[in-house]
Amino acid sequence: MPMDAWREGDTFFVELGLPGVNPESIDLDVERNVLTVKAERKQAYGDNCDTVITERPAGTFSRQLFLGDTLDAERIDASYEAGVLKLRVPVAEQAKPRKIAISGGSDRKELDG
User: Fold this and answer.
1) Domain SHSP spans what residues (predicted)?
2) Which of 26, 71, 96, 110 pairs with 11 at a CA distance of 20 to 30 A?
């Protein structure tokens, strides 16, 4: 299950190559920041065939991705098109950079010494 992963702004993207897989056989689970992808590719031919070449593996495949605490595992979006499973994983709100206001300056009173 070859994979590409990258970050654009506040979103991580993951693409997994699953050519020939029926989308209904794909199963995604998240437990304790571990995303598990399972899929099944069935043989295109029957059991009574004499195979000449078999280069595309068949069977059940799985892969686990460890999601850091900075990612929002509750808001993962998944789509499957042209043999590619695409996942969008947003950065958690609490992990995004933010500005912190600084008070003081004109509110301070100087003491004579």
Assistant:
1) 1-105
2) 26
